[in-house]
Each structure stands twice: as C-alpha cells, then as structure tokens.
Amino acid sequence: MDRILESHLRAAEILYYFALKQAQKYKISKFLSSSHYMTLTEARRNLGLFQHHDAITGTAKDWVVVDYGTRLFHSLTNLKKIIGYSALLLILKDKNSYNSYSFDNLLDMDLKQNSQSSLPQKTIITLSAEPRYLVVCNPSEQDRISVVSVYVSSPTAKVSSASGKPVEIQMSAVWNTASTISQTAYEISFLVQIPPLGLKVYTILESASSDPHLAEYVLHNGNVKDKGIFNMKNVKSTDENIILENSFVKLRFGPSGLMEEMINKEDGKRHEVKVQFSWYGTTSKKDKSGAYLFLPDGEAKPYVYTALPFVRVQHGRFYSDVTCFLEHVTHRVRLYNIQGIDGQSVEVSNIVDIRKEHNREIAMRISSSINSQNRFYTDLNGYQIQPRMTMSKLPLQANVYPMTTMAYIQDAKHRLTLLSAQSLGVSSLKSGQIEVIMDRRLMQDDNRGLEQGVHDNKVTANLFRILLEKRSVVNMEEEKKSVSYPSLVSHITSFFLNHPVFTMTEKIPVPTLQLLGEFSPLLSSLPCDIHLVNLRTIQSKVDGKHSDEAALILHRKGFDCRFSSRDTGLLCSTTQGKILVQKLFSMFTVTSLIPSSLSLMHSPPDARNISEINLSPMEISTFRIQL
Description:
Blueprint: H1 2-26, H2 29-32, H3 36-50, H4 62-91, E1 107-109, E2 111-112, E3 121-122, E4 124-125, E5 132-137, E6 144-152, E7 157-161, E8 170-177, E9 180-194, E10 199-206, E11 213-214, E12 216-220, E13 231-235, E14 242-245, E15 249-253, E16 259-264, E17 270-280, E18 301-302, E19 310-315, E20 319-325, E21 329-336, E22 346-352, E23 360-368, E24 375-380, E25 384-389, E26 401-403, E27 406-410, E28 414-420, E29 424-427, E30 433-441, E31 460-470, H5 476-479, H6 488-498, E32 502-506, E33 518-519, E34 530-539, E35 546-556, E36 578-580, E37 592-596, E38 612-614, E39 620-626
Parallel strand pairs: 4-6, 8-11, 12-13
Antiparallel strand pairs: 1-32, 2-3, 5-10, 5-32, 6-9, 7-10, 8-9, 10-33, 12-19, 14-15, 15-16, 16-17, 17-18, 17-23, 19-20, 20-21, 21-22, 22-31, 23-30, 24-25, 24-27, 26-29, 27-28, 28-31, 29-30, 34-35, 35-39, 36-38, 37-39
Helix pairs in contact: 1-3, 1-4, 3-4
Cofactor: Zn(2+)
Family: Belongs to the glycosyl hydrolase 38 family.
Pfam family, one: Glyco_hydro_38C
C-alpha cells in the first residue's frame, strides 16, 4: 500500500501543478479556491510518517499498524479525487465550464478499496448506448505502450479513440472464484499509447457492432460449470505441456501450472527457469523466529500438494496467462503480447494467505541454469546495486538480504532479474537460485521489544516481473568490483511495475461534457536514463497554500550499457545527461529555472536562471521551476 500511495502521490503532485497553471491562466476560481493543496500536504506527511523504521518493517504493535494503514488509506482516497479533478481540468475543451460541474459524478478511478486491510477491486462500469469517457493517465516521463483492462457490465462493449476510431479489444472472463465466472461482468483489455506525463481519452459504450477478440480457456485438473460466452476446454491428461508465447519469449509450464523454462525467440536458446514454493519452519530451541529474528529449522521444505492443483490457462489477443490455485497461494504468470517494454518480461502475481498456519514462512524460489556461483545482487533503496556473497560458513539467516525493488544473478552470458513491487527478503542459497520470502506467521515474541508475535496476517498480493537478458563482452576481473548496474530495460521495467497507468471513467454519462483527445505536456519523452522524481508545488511563505513555483527533481540513473537496448521496445534515447529547458514542455513556457539544494532550503550563491540542465550519472538534482 505504501508503494501504491507513493505512485498516486507523485501522479497527483504532477497533474495538480499542471492543472494549477491552467486554472491560473483561465481564472478558474473553483479549482484555485479548493483545499487540494492542503490534502496533498497531508498525504506527503502520512507517507513520510510511514517511512518510520517500525512502520515499513511491520515491527509495530497490531493497533499501531492499523493506524498507519488507516492514514495511508485515507490519503489514497483523497489523492484519487485530486487526480480526477486535475485530469478533468486538463482535458476539458472549454476550461471555464469546470466551475459548473458538480464533482460527485465525474472522473472516477477504476480501482476501489473498501478498507485499509482489503485488496483493491476493480469497479464494474455499467454500459449503455450512451457513450461515456474513459481517461488513461501515464505517470511516467516516457512515451508508453501498455495494456489497459477495465470491467464492464456487457459483453457487447465497444471502445473508440477520441477521434471515433474503434479500438481492438480482448474480452476475458471475470472470475468470482477459481472455477465460477461472473455472469454480470466482463473484462475488456486494449492497447494504449500515451504521451509522457500525459492523458489519453477514449469512449466506451454498448453496441451491437462491437467485435471483441474473446479469450480462450483451457482448464487442467478441474472444470467450470457455466462457460457463458467463452470457449473453454477441459483437459484431463497431464502430459500435455502448457505454452505461452509472445514475439520475444516462449514459456513452458509443468503439469502443476508452474513455470519450468524460458525460450528466447531471438536465438531459440532454452533456459531453465523453474518456479517453486517452499516453507521455512522455526527452530526447536528456546529462541524462536519473531517479528525481528529469522531463525529457521534448517533449509526450506518444498511445498507439497497431494493432488495436482487446478490450473486455468487463458490465451488472448493482448495477454495470455496461467493461473494455478494452491491452498495458500494463487499464482499467476502473465505474458503480454505487445511490442513495448511490457512484452519483454514475465509478470508474476502471488496472492498469499497463510492465516491458518503456525510458525511458518512461505517463500518463492526461482531456480535457473545460470552459473552464478555464490554471488547475487540486490538494490539499496532502488538507487544503487550492492553485490552479495552467500557464505556457506554462516548460518542460513545471515545470507538473507533486503530487496527493495530488484535482485539479480548473472554469469558470463546471461542475467536473470527479479523485479519487485514490494520490499521483501531475498537470498541465493545455491548457484542459479533466487528465493524471496513472501509472508511470515510467527506465534511468539522474539524478545526485541515488540512484546507480540506476527499474527495479524492479511491476504497479501505480491507482484513481480522476471527479466532474462543476454550479456555481451564480460571481463571477469570487472565482475569482482563492488559496483554493478541494472540495464536500461530493467530500470524502465521496474518503474512501470511500481507506477502503473491509471484509468478513470465518467461515473454517469454527462451529455454536455466535451473533452480533448489528449493532454501531452512534454515535447517528447525525457532521455531514457533521466527519471522525473517529482514536480511538486512549493508551499507559499504566507498562508500555507500553494505558491507559483514548483520543485523539479530529476535523477539520472546509472545503467550498464553492455546490454543491448535494440529491438526491446524502448521509445527513448540517452543524451549524456543534458536537457534543454526550452525543449522540455510543449504546452507551458518555463519562465524561470533555478538550481537549488535537494531540500529546497538553499540556493547556491551564484544561482541564476539556467537554459540547460546537466546531470551526472547516479545524481539527483533539484530546481525551482516556474511555468
């Protein structure tokens, strides 16, 4: 939830500043007099509070954890509203009509969460012959091709671009349980290309002329009673391999629905990449595992199931996936059939529920044929990579390290990266393995001051991407150095994983609402290696409201240029860290841009308006900007 709030806060800050500038230009009193800025400030504070060392680690008492969760949840709800208000102002054809709309029935985010401890659910859009707007927002500074999925009430949905051109859609079943499909909801997915930091407008309606590509299903070790409009095949035999493929990669799965092999389409090479689950227990000695300590009873025991699990395979126009239903984990592996960055890697989603277990920890292990020996790499706070050595002379728990956003193993020819949307503990106990601990349930206190065990487990969603890359020219001496960098594709995949595109829909069709086709604030994508950390409105010195200035925070990432980024779907280039200020925005003119200290408290003595930004690799710079 912390990452989700972080992603929403960044999007809200950026859209709010653009909307504020438009509101000032067109003198829109309703937006200018709103309390949005106070709400943004409160959200920053709640997110900041959660960075406390007992909050992000989960080493706080149950009621304190609930309080943190409630604060995050409250801010998330408010940020969704701000994103909706700001986006509406930016894409309204007639900006002055903003004052006349009442706000409960306009743009609404499509993910709903009922409480701080529940998983987000997609809202079902009730369709009619009256078209309603669907707005997609890209929070990244790169031009982006993504698949957008929404739930609709009718199987005859039709999506058109703002100019009225119909868009190809994939229609999939919405599953109420593992083997029953909803008769009132359908999932439609379509491809969007959105400008950097931009918004794109589509319309959606019910129409007899709609022509969706229906997904096809194959069910192993189980069956579905009511198939609805979908073509579903039951398979009893276990010797048939399950295959998923796109233009980059082909995946082979075993009879239990777990991935076993990745085949690179470019050179046809087969790589063993096996996904398995395992359990750790806790020691029988007096001191046992708790919130702080990991004291396992030896190596992990494999996850055993008596009968083969129910496996659901879906083949669709834009994505295909394999979902396998184990008792404690619903494990889904999805492959996007698109040319962009999202098609390069494999998406893995685990919904974990160990609330009935005692003193057990569940882990996911990826075993590959990569000869990584005893070295692996984890990131420090998403900024830099630290090499790790697995030492056999140390106890098992001493070889587990934190992973914030990624971990990888490599040999002379390949690198296997696990990118993560949440912080977890990771280890590589044998050559070619990456193991992640996904959830722990421990019944006793471990005498470190918390005075309780870890028993407030929830159903948790874990999201990962697995990326297999070819390496070229490797000098083995360099391998021993204490620095290592992700590839550009890896950096951007990690960003896309943590900052997905947002979809908003018009709650109730408003016939008078006229929207532009898109909002595209930047002239082009920023260079591949430059990340816009934030563009946040600075507080005014007088009344605690907004001022006219914003903080532009840029981070130039260090990347390993020995990985080819040819034909990988990257839509940007690198410029040695140079950006021309006048070539940055398309709809706004930069009136001033002054370098500042990171905290914005000080400006260097020779600070003046600059026309070119120069960043060194691995550096973060802050500027005061006025549009």
